[in-house]
Amino acid sequence: MKTLARDEALLMLNKVPEVTLYFWIIKTMATTVGETGADFLNFNLNFGLTGTSLVMAGLLAVFLFIQLRARKYVPWLYWMNVVLISIVGTLITDNLVDNFGIALETTTAAFGIALLATFALWYAREKTLSIHSIVTTRRELFYWAAILFTFALGTAAGDLVAESMKLGYANSALMFGALIAAVTVAYYGFKANAVLAFWIAYILTRPLGASCGDWLSQPIANGGLGLGTVTTSLIFLTTILGLVVFLSVTRKDVIPRTA
């Protein structure tokens, strides 16, 4: 088994992008699209929550299969999966809350536990949680499982703060933005653990993006700017597309081979 994993690592380049400013911009925008895109399909196209969930889960399964078959990081394919998994993560939480009546406090705690369990199992098997080591299929599966739970957790936590706690979309965005800034200061100013800082920031970008998406798209009467889900989704999808094309050409976010 160890020999097989080592041989696979020699053949497979790192499957995820380097953590740059571009990474965080696209990631945050992808989370916004996850929020507004799910709302657009659910309400504007009248797919309904169940229909939207089935369609997006099917699309994610197709693109994730293609991603797992690839032998290196492909920008458009990777970020397509992030956008889709963002939407699916949002829908999982929405289904539990709206269809099954589970409280946001419960879903937040449950997804938090699920994410910690994923990290624990990942570390127990691989002895690392670093994204610079996603060079085997098993590690990539752990990676995408963790990503899914971060989106579901972020959705639940964001809705809990913005809606149940009545903080509002703009204030929620400011709060989560301040938390990300604190993590950044801890990492650069106090040399906090890089892997821990990355995953904390990754989790926090989900409610930040969701709060920004709701703030931009929701009607003014509900505390938003009234742009609507269509306009908001198009703005962010166009920006993501432009950045992904740029990265595909420049390869600024490719992690060099280290083994």
From TrEMBL:
In terms of InterPro entries, this protein maps to: DUF347
Q: Which UniProt keywords apply?
A: Membrane, Transmembrane, Transmembrane helix
Residue ranges spanning the membrane: these are: 21-41, 47-66, 73-93, 99-121, 141-162, 168-188, 195-216, 228-249
Protein name as catalogued: Membrane-anchored protein
Q: Look up and give the organism this protein is from.
A: Caldichromatium japonicum
